[in-house]
Amino acid sequence: MTPHLIEAAGLSIGYHGVELIKELNFGLQPGEFWAVIGPNGAGKTTLLRTVVGELRPIAGTVLLRGKAIHFHERRKIARIIGYVPQRMNINPFMRVEDYVMLGRYHRIGAFRRPSASDREVVKRAMSLTDTLHLRGRYMGEISMGELQRIRIARALAQEPELLVLDEPLVHLDPGHRFQLMEMLKKLSDGGMAIFAAVHDVETASLYATHVLLLGNGRYVRGEASEVLDSEHIEPLFDVRIGRYRGKIVLLPPD
C-alpha cells in the first residue's frame, strides 16, 4: 500500500513534557484539504510545528512518505512541504517579489541566480494570491492582509506537495477570505494536500474535505460532514449550530 504523504502515528505533542494531545493518529493523502479546528490553547500551532519537523513530539512519530520526518534533510522537506506560520520575521526594506523568490531558495541554492522558470513560478504564485500588483513594493509598505497573502505566495513558490498554514485567514477581509479558500480548494482539487489551522468553522465547512478537531486534550477526525456537527462543535465552543440553505451557521448559546 502506498504510504500517506504525511502521517501521525501515536503522536503526543506539547511543550516541556506537558502533553496537549495524546496518541494522535491521522494520515494525509494528495488532494485532501484538512482543516485543524479547536479553541485557543488546544494545540493547533504545536501540532503544525510538529508536523513540519520544527518540534519533536513527546511520543510517537511524524512520517513523511513513510520515513520519520527528522531523518529527512531540511532541504528535501522544503521541496515537499510549504509552511506558513502565524509569525515570521520580515525585512521591511526587501521588495515583495524578492521576498516571494525566497521560496525558491531550496531549489536555486545559495550561489545560483534565479532563472526565467524560477521567475515564472514566482509570478504564478503571486497571481494565485492576488499579489502580483505588489511585486515592486517594499515589505514595509504593505498592509497586514497583503502581507498574509504574500507569505502564502512565498510558500507556493516552493512548489510543495503539501501546504501547511497556521491561521491563514487572519487579517484578511471577507472577500479575500473566500478568495483564499477558493484558491486552496482549487489547489487540493489539483492534487496538493492542504493542512490548515483555522478558527472560522463556517468557512472551513464550505471547503475542507476533512477535519481534525482538537479540544480538552482529545481529538476527533474524519470527513468534514461527519465532524462539523452539533455533537462535536457546540460543547467545544459554547455555541449553537444552525443551518441556512444547507450551510453551517454558528449562533450564540441559548
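(ticket continues) Second input and output from the same batch:
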Amino acid sequence: MAWLQTEIRLAPRRRGFHLITSEVEAAVAGMEQLRVGLLHVFIQHTSASLSINENADPDVPVDLEMAFNKIAQEDFPYVHTLEGPDDMPAHVKASMLGSSITVPIKDGRLCLGTWQGIYLCEHRDRGGPRRLVITLHGE
C-alpha cells in the first residue's frame, strides 16, 4: 500500500464551473502504477468548492452556475458583508457542494463515468488562485 500527497495551485478563474480533471490527473505522479486505490481532492478555501458532474455538454456548467446563483442570491439580507456582495453567497454555495471529492482508481485510471469530470466551482467574481491537496492511496 502506498500513500502519496501533493499540493497544486490552480490559476485564477472567473466565477463559474470549470473542468479541472486533466490538471488533477497531471499532478498525480504514480497513479498509473496502482491496480486499485482512491484519489482524494480537497480545496483549501471556503468560497470555492469541488464537484463531479457532466463533462461533455458546455451548457451544463452554465446551467449549474445559473441555478446556484438563484439558490444563493447576492441580494439576500446577509449579515456577513465585509468582503463584498459575492462573498457570503460563495460560502453558501461552497457549503452545499463541499470541499472535497473522492474518486476510485482502477488499473491506474480514475473510475469516472463516461460523462463525468472534476469541476472547480469558483463562487467569487475574482477568487484568485486556488490550492488543492491531492492524496492518493492504493496498491
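Agent notes: Helices lie at 21-27, 59-71, 87-97. The domain at 2-138 is CATH 2.60.120.460 (Jelly Rolls). Closing as not reproducible unless the customer responds.
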